[in-house]
Amino acid sequence: MNELMAAVREGYDAAVLFLIQREDARAFAQNGAMDPVFARALEEAADCGVRVLAYRCRMGPDALELGTPVPVVHALAG
């Protein structure tokens, strides 16, 4: 996240993409209870201008198919 934030500060466009391996996912949120350091870093990156994207995907034995985007919910726990 630090490198992505540095890129934004230098004028670049930066994004982080989460692929959710469930076709029924309705939203994405970082798990602050499991990894509070990463959750805070992701929140800080989003506040800095790093785009946080999340998409459903379909996994098959020989391929991964990108699905539709889901909303990103910024919710820190703890």
TrEMBL record:
Q: Would you say which domain of life the source belongs to? A: Bacteria
Q: Where is the Sugar fermentation stimulation protein C-terminal domain?
A: 1-62
Which Gene3D superfamilies does UniProt cross-reference here? 3.40.1350.60
Annotated Gene Ontology MF terms? DNA binding
Q: Name one Pfam family in it.
A: SfsA
Q: What InterPro entries does the database record attribute to this sequence?
A: SfsA (IPR005224), SfsA_C (IPR040452)
Q: What is this protein called?
A: Sugar fermentation stimulation protein A
Species of the source: Alicyclobacillus macrosporangiidus
Higher taxonomy: Bacteria, Bacillati, Bacillota, Bacilli, Bacillales
